[in-house]
Amino acid sequence: MAEKFAVIGAGHFGTAIAVTLSKKGAEVMVIDTNQDKIDAINDEVSYAVCLDATDKKALMSQDIKDFDAVVVAIGQNFEARLLCAAVLLDIGVKKIICRSLGMSQRLILDKMGVTEILSPEDEVALIVAERLMNPSVISYLQLPDDHRIAEVLAPRKIAGRTYGDLNLRDRYKLSMITIKRDFLEIIDKQECTIQHIIGVPDTKTIIQPNDSLVIFGKNRDIERFIEINS
User: Fold this and answer.
1) Which parts of 1-159 fold into alpha helices (H)?
2) Which of 24, 46, 111, 141 could form a disulfide with 149 if both were Cys (CB 3.0 to 4.6 A apart)?
């Protein structure tokens, strides 16, 4: 049986979550007070409903308690987001994931008992700042204890060398998870460059100039690896 999710708020953020979940095979219900937004997403998800998500009776009429998780993705209206989260907590929804814009909102939601809080704007800001400071870092996932998984452009000095020759683990205290590589493909009679994962690299894998390396390690060790080999 497919997992069931509800997404409340059909702005850019909520729509992206709902459509992605739907494409992965989940049963998705989208709720918004704007009928035009509901009409726009209706064909992309299992069903879309125009109603006020701060109205307890309205939410209960959609059997909201039966969903595996509810994402509160309401945008700028924090009062509506807060009321919606409060209603969902009161109904007893299994899992509530709520959007937060700033630390004050996060603090309030946390005090209410919402344990899963998203701050997409803050996360994007950190990635943008990182890329401005270090253009070699394409993206990263920050982990506890100053570790991260980072996708970095292959530094200039390692192009043409094998993974085994790099000796990442002993020399830099890093592990390479995989490599993303550009391939030329014909799509609709047009030649396009498409990135593919080449799998888990072995010692004979040769690093190519346009490769993106997905590596794991401490922040300072990743920075040192880029600096030494650029």
Assistant:
1) 12-23, 35-41, 56-61, 78-91, 103-112, 120-133
2) 141
Measured CA to CA, the distance from residue 212 to residue 189 in angstroms comes to: 27
Q: Which are the contacts of 16, defined by CB distance < 8 A and separation ≥ 6? A: none
Separation between Cα atoms, residue 2 and residue 193, nearest integer Å: 34
Q: Are 70 and 97 in contact (CB under 8 A)?
A: yes
The answer, yes or no, to whether residue 196 has pLDDT greater than 90, is yes
Q: Give 118-150 pLDDT, tens digit per residue.
A: 887 777 777 777 777 788 998 888 899 999 999
For 14-21, what is the mean pLDDT? 92
Per-residue pLDDT, averaged over 152-165, amounts to: 94
User: Which of 210, 188, 215, 189 lies closest to 200 in space, CA to CA?
Assistant: 215
Residue 120 to residue 42: CA distance in whole angstroms: 24
Residue 139's SS3 state is: strand
2 DSSP assignment: -
Which domains are delineated in the chain? 4-118 (3.40.50.720), 124-229 (3.30.70.1450)
Question: How far does CA 180 lie from the centroid of its chain?
Answer: 18
Task: Dig out the tokens for 45 from the structure.
Answer: 């998800």
Determine the average pLDDT of the residues in 49-66: 95
